[in-house]
Structure formats: C-alpha cells, structure tokens
Write a structure and sequence with these properties.
alpha/beta, Rossmann fold, globular
Length: about 200
Amino acid sequence: MQIKTAEFLMSNTDLKKCPEANLNEYAFIGRSNVGKSSLINMLTNNSGLAKTSSTPGKTQHLNHFLINKSWYLVDLPGYGYAKMPKTLRAKFKSMIESYILKRTNLVALFVLIDCRHPAQKIDIEFLNWLGNNAVPFSLVFTKSDKLGVNSLSKSIDEYKLELLKYWETLPQIFVSSSVKVIGKEEILDYISELNKIIDAG
C-alpha cells in the first residue's frame, strides 16, 4: 500500500465526538517516548503529521487522521502515563479503555515496544488486558536502528519468550525504525490486507 493522502481530522477526549464509525480504523499506542509519533509520520510520508516531542506524554487526545480518504489512523495517548496528577492519569486510562473497547470500527491496535528494553510489567499487563477483552492487536518493535542485528534478534526473542508465559500463540510482530524507514512496507501491507478482507466480507 502507498499512502498518497494523510489528513488530520480531529483531536478530542470524548469517544462520542470521534468521526462517524463508517471506515476501517487502526490505532497506535505505546508507552511514553516509544517513538509513536515518529512511526506514524514515517508510515504516512509526512514528518509533521503527528507531533513529536522530547517530553514524554505529549499525546493527550484521540487524534484521528484520514488516510487515502478510505480509512482512519488514530494516534492514542501512551498507556505509561508520564508524570502527571493521579486524577489526570485516571482520566487518560478511562479515555483509552473506552475507545479500545467501544469503538466499533476499530480493526486492530498496534502496540509499540522499544526493542532496546526487556519486557516491562506495564507492557505485559496491558497486553494481557487486551487479550482478556478479545482486542485484536499487533506488536511493533520500534527503534531497531539503535541495536545491532544480533542484539536486536536476541532482544525480540527474549520478549517472545516472556509473552509465551502468558500466551499460547504470539500476535503479529513487526520490527521498525523511523530513522531507517524499516517496517513501513510490512505494516502498510498488513493494513491493506485486513482492509481487503473486511471489505470483501
């Protein structure tokens, strides 16, 4: 798939104010500073589409983008919740969970993981929560350019072993680098295939 147009539609904190659920939708989420905005910009060929920041927790809304005038891409706030008051953390948690569980046109969630770090408790808890709620998701290991080939392979293999403690089968896994444009074709082709399956059904 080639992305020819990527338009920002809206940014809000209320599920009821999201665009009409009439197009297939794919959302991206990850802990703070995982490289989510950079990945979205890489996928859409637009370095300024999703706002990047060195400050963790910058994304605080449900950000909708219309891709090729045929499907939605959504930039979600991180589930790691950067330093902020407990009341705001609770608000974020409620907003994210409400979106994930109630957005009827959500086809799949892409959960971003920094490949440089071992599996974190917060990641495992979030993935298990998705599984318990039958939410379809894929894993995207980001920042692969930061590791050598052998270290990258070892890191991902160790993560898989950790997941297999809780899961019988692993989800779809992608490896990406926004710097070296790695994983772009694979992720977009995956979305394209899912769109074809849904549209054909």
